[in-house]
Amino acid sequence: MTHPGQERPRADADVRVVRWSSVASLWLVVLVGGGAQVLIGTDGPPTARTPVLVVLTVAAMVAALASIPLLLRPAGAASARHPAVLALLVLAVATWVVALVPSATGSAWSFTLAIAGGTVGCMLRGWARVTVLAGTVVLLVGAADARAEPAELVLVGTLALFALMPLSVVWIHRVVLRLEAARRTASDLAVAEERLRFATDLHDIQGHHLQVIALKSELAERLLDADPERARSELSDIRTVAQEALEDTRALVGGYRTVTVAVEARNAAAVLRSAGVSCRVQLETAGMPDAVGALFAVAIREAATNTIRHSHASTASIELLPDGDAWRLTVANDAPRSSGRHGTGTGIDGLRQRVATHGGTVDVDRSEDRFALLVRIPVPARAAVRP
Hints:
The protein is an alpha+beta fold. Helices cover 67% and strands 10% of the residues.
């Protein structure tokens, strides 16, 4: 198992892809909208205002491109007061006002105004967002030709779409971030649940032994003068119980505590399902010695923990089946870590050492859409003899 503080490359890569695709989409909106504004606005006899409008449009596009990283931050009024956003608003409104002077077509030069309204709307919340977007749409409609020709109506509708497109792109980006945060929380809770189960087992073991030690110590103290021999016997029992407590604790921490592999597989499947991973279990363990079962239980626990912490899996499977003169465990998931370490975590290395003492092997099978931990342990000589 690799260190808990290491990043989850697959999930982080997905978030980066969403972020850059959102940035690219917003860049495209700005470039297409600004380009369309220049092309449509200059489609006709040039006037003295045409160069001014073109310069204002280009400047507004630069301000809009500079404002795009702000859109991917949490919504808030502070972002709306950023210099790049204020410059975008001033330039877009200035372009729109200059174009509204008689003999100019306001709608043709309104793309940057639509983009500015959508940009500011993304940075606000609640009624402030609704007010800005509604006001932008009202201004766009007000700039339309009063004759309401079909081409003018199509242009106004297109402008409304340009005002809403930034909002939809940013909304999708934020939803993905919330889903990723929820997935991480579910994974952390699943790991915490497994730790709580381990702590409960440790509490049960230590609580039992400590209670026996306390009772026998009290009894030995009372018998020390009245019956020294019996007190000596009780002290000997205390030493034995303390040694048992030490051995049981070491066995629990080392993963060798007597527990059936079926119970461990059921616990692992429950933990995976609580983390949102569908898990299928298939076990055939008839005749398996307890020591071998304990090894497979450790392997299942290790694989389940790695799946939760270091993968982006939606499905997993646990299979423990006879394989000729051995047993074979396969724990697989459908979304491995995108890492080049090929299963060299300390947990897997430790598992290899344990399995090697029983003549077994631990392998990792990795592909783009599947990761599998393969543990194979030969049947011990005594277990191989069938009546």
